[in-house]
Structure formats: C-alpha cells, structure tokens
Specification:
This protein is an alpha+beta fold. It contains 24 helices and 25 strands. Strand 9 and strand 10 form a beta hairpin. Helix 9 packs antiparallel against helix 14 and helix 20 packs parallel to helix 23. The longest helix is centred in the last third of the chain and has 35 residues. The radius of gyration is 34 Å and the shape is elongated.
Length: about 800
C-alpha cells in the first residue's frame, strides 16, 4: 500500500507540474528562511554557554540615581575590588581592565631591542587582570598557569595572537613585548583561543600588578569617586549563595566604603547574570556588539510568519485542486477505502512534498549562510549543522506537515462518494469559501506588517543618516594615539607640519570627538553654589577644536591657547539644566569640576549630538588639558583626499616613528553607532521581499486554478459582450477587497511593533498615515501584477475555443 501511495503522490506531482513547483518553491523558501533565522538566534543565545559555571557567574554593575534620572555603568571604582573581597570572603571575585587602541611592539628575545618594525594596534582584546579572574572564568592553558599573573610585567597571549606576533605560538614563551611605548613585558603563558561566541574577546592578558605600577598610563587610581566602564568585576557565587542574597548585602556596600560621596548622587551596585551580559542594553560589554532580545524575538516571529504564509499557499492550492480529485476519492471509497486510509494518503503526499521542499531549503540555506553577516553582526563563519539544528529540522518538518496537510487531508477524505461520482462537488463547496478567504487575508496581513516595518525602518535610518548633528562630520580625518609625554612633546611641531599639507584645512587635538560612544562624567559645582544634582560630560580639547568640527557659539566664544584647564565652554543643554534663562547668563560665571579649581565659562555652544540619536544630548563641558589629548582631528579639503591621507601618514611616520599609524573618518565612526539598526532595516527588506514573493506565488496559483475552473463562464461572458477589462475585474475584485481587510488587521499590529522599535531612539520619525497608505497601495500594486498576467491571458482566450473545450 505504501508503494501505491508513493506512486499516486508522484503521479499527482507530475500531473500538476505548475502547482507542484509553486508548493515546493513556497515551502522551500519559507523553510530556508526559518533555518537561517534559527541559526542566527541560536548563535546569539549561545554566548558564554561554554563556561562550565555559566549559571553561577555574575557581573557587578553600578547604578547612579540623580534628581533628574538614573544612569547605569558596567564598571566599578578600582578600590571596590579589594573591598568586595573583604566584604564577600566566601565569593570568588575577579576583574578585567580593558584598554582600547593600545599599541604592541614586538621586541623578540631581547628586551632592549630598539627595532620598532613590528607594531600592532589592538583595538579590542587587550586586558589586565590577576589570577582570580581565571577562577571565575574557565580558559584552557596550553603553557603556563594563572599564577604567572601574580607578578608584574608578565603577560599571557592566546594562540592566535602569539602566532601573529611570533609566527608560532610555541616560540612565544620568554619573548618580550612593549606596550604603548612605555612598558616592557615578558610572555609567560599561552591560552587556547576562546570560542567566538563570547563578550570577552581575550587576546592579551597582562598582570594587574603591572597597571598598579604604571597607573598614569592606564588611568588607575584609588579614588572611590572615579568609575570607568573599562574596569569590570565578576563574581562566582557558591551553590548555596543566591543573587538576591548578595544584592541585599550590596545595599550598604557603597555607603560603608565610599566616605566622599556626592550629596546629589546615590550609587548602588547589583549583580547582573552572565546570561544577560550579551543582551542588557543598559550596559556596555567588552565584545563587538550587544544583541537585543526583542530583535531576536522579532526575527523568530518573522520566521514564523513566513512559514505560515507558505503553508497557507499549500492549503489554498490543495483545497482548490480537491475538485479535480473528487472522483478519485469517490472511487476509492466505493472500493472499500476507509477515511483514515485516505487521510493517511493525503498526509503522505504532503510529507513527500515537504520533504522535497526541505531538501531544497537546506541547499538554499547552505548557499546563503556565508551572507548571514548581512542580517546579523556575526563576523566569524558559523556552521548550519549542529544537533540543535537537526532537532529543529525534525520539529519543523513535522509542524509544516501538520500545518499544511491537516486541513486539505480532512477535506478530501471527507468527500461523500455519491456526490463525488455524480460530479456534484465544486470549488465553491470545497472547504468553504470563508476559510480560504480568511487564509488569504492572513497572508496579506502578514505581508503588510513586513512592508510597513520595512518602510518605517528605512525612513528612520534615512532620518538618522541625514540628521543635523550640530557639527561638521564630513572629510574629518582622525588619528588615534597614546596620551603620553612623548606624544605631547611633539604634537605642536606635528600640527604645524600638517598645516603645511595642501589638502589640510584645520587641525585639533582632543581626548574625544564631539559625538562618540565614550563617556567621561563628573560631579561639579556652578557659580559657587552647592554641588549640582546631575553630572556633566567632560571633553578636553585645544582652542582649534571648535573650528575644526564647525561647532557654533550661541554666546561668548572659544577659550584661548592653554596646556591646562583655565576657561571652559559649555553647551546649550547644560545652560537649561542649570536653570539659566539664556546662554548669555552663563558667560563669566565660574564652574568647578570635582575638587579642582574654579574655571570661568567663556562660551556657550549650540547643542550638538554628543552620542547616538538613541540618547539625549548630555550636558557637556569642554576645557583644554594637554595631558589627555589622544585624538588628532584633521579637517580636509574634499578634493584628493587619498593623496592628502598619504601625506599625513608620511608626516606621522616622520614625527612619531615609534608609534603605529591608526586612522579613521569621523562620518564612518558615527555610522558605526547604527550598524545593528541598518541591519535591522535590511532584515525587514529581505523578509518583506520573501513574504511578498510567497504571497505572489499563492495568488498566481489561485488565479491559475480559477481561470481553469471559470473557462466556460469566461467564454459565455465574452459572447454576451464582456470586455477584457470586465474579465480582469472579475478576477481582481475579490483579492482587492481581501487586501483591504488584511490592511485593517495589519496596521495596528505593525504600528505597535515599529513604535516599540522607534522608542530606542530619542530622535525619531513620527509614524503618520502616509506610511500605511503607501503600504496598502504597494500591496495592491504587487497583487494586481501577480493576478494581472493570468487574468489577461484568460480574458484573451477565444470564447469559441473556451466553449468547445467544455
């Protein structure tokens, strides 16, 4: 019997080739989309799960409460580490101090080697820690042990890093490196490369004692009032200690240890589970990105939408074809077949089609997998095949068979043999018109949700791309460097040489550009009154900073040339938060940062975006302090930028031969803020396109079937005088109505979804009626194209031929 069922299934596929292709193609594309989405979601959810104590590792984070709100910081003050070890003796506590953009010079076996040919800039993966960190986190040691990090000037490399520096990691032990042209360290251990799915991209780990002995280079200090996100603490809780218990003990931790608290600020610490480090948008992590759980759930929902649409196509076409199989079913029943046997036959045929679609989907997924980085921040190659994927495929296979095959099997196996053999079963009576209409409405509603999502995402990202940031970001070339005495001694000479280059307009030194993801915040006092109840964002820059970036003054002007902070400039937001009526009131007033001397305000800037458009503009103060200058900003002429860059690099290598040249463009740095959002917009484009394609496949199949069913009706209408336009209207009127009904369902759902996404941006577009009208018109246009070809073809058939064929 099974052989007979397979033979019948194959014959039906070959007899109705067009419908078979539509069904298999629709299901294959839907299954492939689900597989790729599953691969991305599975990968993002797998971060840190290779750690054996994954469930017991927690990140200690900080929360600062002010009168005007709450801020969060993933770091803690440096002295907090030892205080935690004293207050929580039963808990293993480790820490990491990260340095970004540090230079590594490979010295080799001779620590006194003066050669500086092998220079590397480590943008990420450069850390300091003590042996306790490796009691919290597990890494495989190929050579050495965590104890080597108890000694100053010892460092540990991963296999990949050691190979990059020395050619073979086995030759690295005992070799010497110089960090930031200041500290010479010896390689004392080799770690096995950690997996890619981690927010701790360890490449170089140096003993924390090295930092303590060179505090000025890496901003190490023993002040409780200074917190940097680069210094983070992690705890491994014993099995009998809960997160809630530790959080309750943290309630008094700061008040007990920090005796110089700011009255306007209440700081508290709490534990963040390791499972949330990759997803919590409140905190930075050491990795290259954070994933958003709502985005992952949106991805999963889109995958579900697409597979449901593919199943709807199958159901509609299968029930529409049921009329042609009514006699077959009637004869089988007369010859003794039971309903359950017929039900099994139809389900078997469905399984056969789904299996063919599944094999095609796997092939499509394998081909598309290298391009997965277009829709996710996954830079390393990942495998489609794993035991989780295998189980997912089995579940998906079973689910699609049930979704796509259950209803058609119930309809076909339920035919009355008497009605079937008398040709009394029609397309109008199969499964009920209302059910098929409901399915088509569902399909169009899903398509329009994705179309609206695409329009909103594209519009918002266009707004972001073209937003007025309050400064000039075009043709601004940036060079990152150390903030050390050697650099500072040569900076003025370097600046004068740069200004001699034909393509250079202006040059400025600073610790940060106007808009960045960096943050340096401090408490302060204004006009000799008690400390303010909010923090100010600090930037240090020279007198040419304002002209280089095109910042505009509302009152006063820039400060004069100085190596230390004298006069300062504030922004418009700070004036408002200080309660001043206008910018002029601030000019001449004095301001005190922390416990430093009072400085005069010389100017007020028009607000510029201090960070991404997701965040409010921060109250900002800019002063001059040469000790912190690590960024050289160069405003270029727009012509011959490539040649100018080559000349800049030549001058750099002449001025700073011992320093590596690392550069970027300001507009590219700002664009990187929104990398995930651009991918979100692209994701909607791709899957909206897939949904539209599947919808069109289904429409084309249904209209094709209707054209065959209505052959005689069309012939009679044409004989009675109906025009081609009338025939096309006959086919399209119902689908047009169903699209409008689908729109009514889709609009509130799409509004809710996209409005939630837009809440991530402080500066955002408004969702107006035009967006929804465009989506409806676009859906109608696409549907009419899908319906139009087959409708016109049916309308142009000679009526004599149509009536004869009947």
């Amino acid at each position: 019997m099974l052989r007979n069922f397979l033979k019948i299934a194959l014959r039906n596929l070959l007899r109705h080739k067009a419908f078979s292709v539509i069904n298999i193609a629709g299901l294959a594309i839907g299954i492939s989309a689900c597989l790729l989405i599953f691969t991305v979601v599975k990968y993002e959810l797998s971060y840190e799960k290779f750690q054996p104590n994954y469930d017991r590792i927690f990140h200690v984070v900080s929360r600062d409460s002010f009168s005007d709100g709450v801020t969060y910081n993933p770091g803690v003050p440096f002295p907090a580490l030892e205080a935690m070890r004293l207050d929580f003796p039963k808990i293993t506590t480790g820490s990491l101090l990260a340095s970004y953009g540090s230079q590594v010079t490979v010295l080799g076996a001779n620590a006194s080697n003066l050669s500086n040919d092998k220079k590397f800039i480590e943008e990420t993966g450069f850390f300091f820690c003590d042996p306790q960190f490796f009691k919290v986190f597990h890494y495989d040691w190929l050579l050495g042990s965590p104890e080597v990090l108890s000694e100053p000037n010892n460092t540990v490399l991963t296999q990949k890093t050691a190979k990059r520096y020395f050619g073979d990691w086995k030759n690295a032990i005992g070799q010497f490196l110089k960090f930031d042209n200041n500290i010479t360290v010896k390689v004392a251990g080799i770690l096995k490369d950690p997996p890619a799915n981690t927010d701790f991209p360890i490449a170089i780990v140096t003993s924390f004692e090295t930092v303590k002995q060179n505090g000025g280079i890496y901003s190490y200090n023993t002040q409780w009032g200074s917190t940097t996100s680069n210094f983070q603490v992690f705890m491994l809780l014993p099995p009998d200690v809960s997160m809630q218990n530790v959080n309750s003990q943290f309630a008094n931790f700061n008040s007990k240890n920090n005796t110089n608290r700011n009255p306007g600020n209440t700081r508290s610490n709490f534990l963040q589970p390791l499972s949330e480090v990759h997803f919590d948008q409140r905190f930075e992590n050491f990795g290259d990105h954070r994933a958003s759980k709502p985005t992952l759930w949106t991805l999963s929902l889109i995958g579900l939408f697409i597979i449901v649409m593919a199943c709807i196509n199958f159901i509609n076409l299968s029930t529409a074809q049921a009329v042609g199989r009514s006699k077959e079913i009637g004869i089988r029943k007369v010859l003794g077949s039971y309903r359950w046997q017929l039900f099994g036959q139809i389900i078997g045929e469905t399984a056969f089609i789904v299996l063919a679609a599944l094999l095609l989907a796997v092939a499509i997924s394998v081909l598309c997998l290298p391009s997965i980085k277009l829709i996710a921040l996954i830079k390393e190659p990942i495998s489609l095949f794993s035991w989780q994927t295998f189980y997912f495929i089995i579940v998906l296979f079973a689910a699609v068979i049930v979704l796509a095959g259950l209803y058609p099997a119930l309809v076909l196996s339920g035919f009355s043999p008497a009605l079937a053999l008398k040709n009394k079963i029609t397309s109008a009576s199969v499964g009920g018109i209302s059910i098929r209409r409901s399915l088509v409405v569902t399909q169009f509603a899903i398509s329009q949700i994705l179309i609206i999502g695409t329009i909103v995402a594209i519009t918002q990202m266009s707004f972001v791309r073209n937003a007025d940031l309050g400064f000039n970001q075009d043709a601004v070339f940036l060079i990152n460097s150390n903030a050390d005495s050697t650099m500072h001694a040569r900076q003025e000479s370097f600046k004068q040489q740069l200004l001699q280059i034909a393509g250079v307009q202006k040059v400025s030194f600073s610790n940060d550009v106007p808009s960045s993801s960096n943050g340096w915040y401090s408490n302060f006092a204004f006009d000799h009154r008690p400390g303010e109840k909010f923090q100010v964002s600090l930037k240090f820059a020279d007198e040419d900073y304002f002209k280089t970036f095109g910042l505009q003054f509302l009152a006063g002007g820039a400060f004069g040339k100085s190596d230390t902070v004298k006069d300062v400039v504030i922004n418009e937001t700070m004036v408002k938060k200080l309660g001043l009526k206008n910018p002029e009131e601030a000019i001449g007033k004095e301001i005190q940062i922390g416990r430093n001397k009072w400085n005069r305000i010389s100017g007020v800037l028009r607000d510029f975006k201090t960070s991404s458009l997701r965040e409010d503009i921060k109250p900002t103060l800019i002063g001059s302090d040469k000790n912190f200058y690590s960024v050289t900003a160069i405003k270029l002429h727009s012509s011959n930028i490539t040649g100018t860059k080559a000349n800049i690099e030549r001058v750099w290598n002449k001025s700073f031969p011992e320093y590596a040249f690392t550069s970027s463009y300001l507009d590219e740095n700002i664009a990187s803020f929104y990398e995930q959002d651009y991918q979100f917009a692209l994701l909607y484009k791709i899957f909206a396109g897939i949904a539209i394609f599947i919808s069109c496949l289904g429409l084309y199949g249904l209209v094709s079937f209707m054209a065959v069913q209505k052959t005689k009706e069309i012939g009679i209408r044409k004989v009675l005088g109906a025009s081609v336009k009338n025939i096309i209207y006959l086919f399209s009127k119902e689908f047009t109505l169903l699209i409008f009904i689908g729109s009514i369902i889709a609009i509130p759902i799409a509004y809710f979804m996209m409005n939630n996404w837009l809440q991530n941006f402080v500066f955002r577009i408004k969702m107006n009626a035009g967006i929804f009208i465009i989506a409806i018109v676009l859906s109608l246009f696409i549907a009419w194209i899908a319906v139009g070809y087959k409708s016109i073809k049916a309308a142009l058939v000679n009526p004599v031929k149509s009536l004869k064929s009947e």
